[in-house]
Specification:
Largest sheet: 7 strands, mixed
Oligomer: single chain
Helix content: under 10%
Length: 127
């Protein structure tokens, strides 16, 4: 059974930083692309960042590009999201997710292409 456990969320002032972690178990982690999505109150879940199974390709939403960095440590079965220069509009519950298919030739940014999700971690940015 695949499980994802996120941590690292919290309350931070605008301009501050946070690092989210997502520990995975129950899968061959290095074979799967991973992604971070976020969902603000009253809004749909949206893509934030993704990393290919090899770690060689990174993808970002325009809204976070240049401020967020996704990375993975296959030895620790963990994916990270370093968030810098946070803005109030970054306030949301952040979810990590596993690609449906191993060793996919492309890395998706679409919610339906991810089938295992963590419980989410709240990030609140005050102005």
């Amino acid at each position: 059974q695949v499980q994802l456990v996120e941590s690292g969320g919290g309350l931070v002032q605008a301009g501050g930083s946070l690092r989210l972690s997502c520990a995975a178990s129950g899968l061959t982690f290095s074979n799967y692309a991973m992604a971070w999505f976020r969902q603000a109150p009253g809004k749909e879940r949206e893509f934030a960042a993704a990393i290919s199974w090899s770690g060689g390709r990174l993808y970002y939403a325009d809204s976070v590009k240049g401020r967020f960095t996704i990375s993975r440590d296959n030895a620790k079965n963990t994916v990270y999201l370093q968030m810098n220069t946070l803005k109030p509009e970054d306030t949301a519950v952040y979810y990590c997710a596993v690609d449906k298919f191993p060793l996919r030739a492309y890395t998706s940014t679409r919610v339906p292409d991810y089938n295992v999700w963590g419980q989410g971690t709240q990030v609140t940015v005050s102005s």
